[in-house]
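yo

u said u wanted the structure for the complex thing, so here. seqs first:
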Amino acid sequence: MARYLSIVEDAYRGTVEEQDDTAVWFTHALRNAGAEAGILLRGSAVYYAVKGQDTRGLRFGTRALTGAPRLDQDLVACIRKSVLVYLVAEDAADRGIPEGELLPGVIRVPRRQIGKLVDQFDRAIHW
Amino acid sequence: MASITIGLMDPPYESANTPTAFRIIDAAIRAGHHVNVFLYEGAVGLGFSGQKPHANPVKGTTAEEEDHPNPKDWVSGLFALARERGTRLDWVNCGLCVDERGLEAQVEGARRGSPADLWKMAEASEGFLFISTR
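structre next:
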């Protein structure tokens, strides 16, 4: 069975409307279907792995958002289903995100080792 | 009280520009300003009344539990807020962009126009912001 790696870089694309990230959601759906899958967060997508995000309270006019996205919890749900979640360590450091702010279970990968990581998977989808 | 004209180009469900723009429009209306919004290209889908909420099979939630935030409801919410505050929201779709996409069915209050409307609205406004897609 082929292993799939979702490389998520185009962050916050429609996440409020979708109530999640479409790439993470898609990868979760692949896993639910039986696929072996991983997620690599890079660029601004590393923010998804920061603990305790809360976007509640958003409203547009008289329409309040009752189901705000919880991107960190979506990653937790993936990890619980044995999806390996990685992030590029330098991309987190560049943004001032300390290691202690990251979700437990997220694997930090140095940028120079991305090639080796991709080699561990058979198919990659770059989002 | 001032008038502001905002142009949007990103389609719904595709960009963080959309909630950012809606927050600006919301804040302007709450502050008592008149707001003109011109929707160009894919942004004409924001007020498309055919949008439907759905369940989320990955999360195992029903459509009711999800309370899926369709942008058409945000547009209607902005119209309702403008009525409450006694300000004016003008929501003008590029008519040719609507035709190309078959999105004629729009929420109440949206109207059809052209780039000439954007120009007229911008000329009559104190503030102008166009958020184009990349």
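Chain A has one domain: 3-126. Residues 13 and 29 of chain A are 18 Å apart (CA to CA).
cya
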